[in-house]
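Lay summary. Proteins are chains of building blocks that fold into shapes, and those shapes determine what they do. In this project we predict the shape from the chain. Here is one chain we studied, written as its sequence of building blocks.
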Amino acid sequence: MASVSSSSSSSIDSNKTIYLIVHGQRHLIDQVKYKLTSKGFKTEKMQMASLDHAGNTGEYVAMIWPPTNSKDIVISEVTDDLEDGASGMGAWATVGQKSTLKIRSRLISFTRQRTR
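And here is the predicted shape, written in a compact code that computers can read:
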């Protein structure tokens, strides 16, 4: 089992699917994928999160945080225990998420200016 070490005593199984949440900032997807692969995650296991389907227990979700002016990528393990902190919208509100790892990041986030 390939794993990624975190600052805690737990490890992340990089063979499991990791869902990406970028809060509509699609221009950050490549940067998020790059940061995750630099920590040992496999690109082929990454997919965009959907409001219609939450991950399965034991899979992961990587979310840029905060949604605007993102500075971190927070990785959580999907659990079946809503006490772990069910949050999110759509199907993601039906599963727990246990924070596992935070990647300090300097994502290049910019606000698109309106053109006249």
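What the prediction tells us: The longest helix spans residues 29-38.
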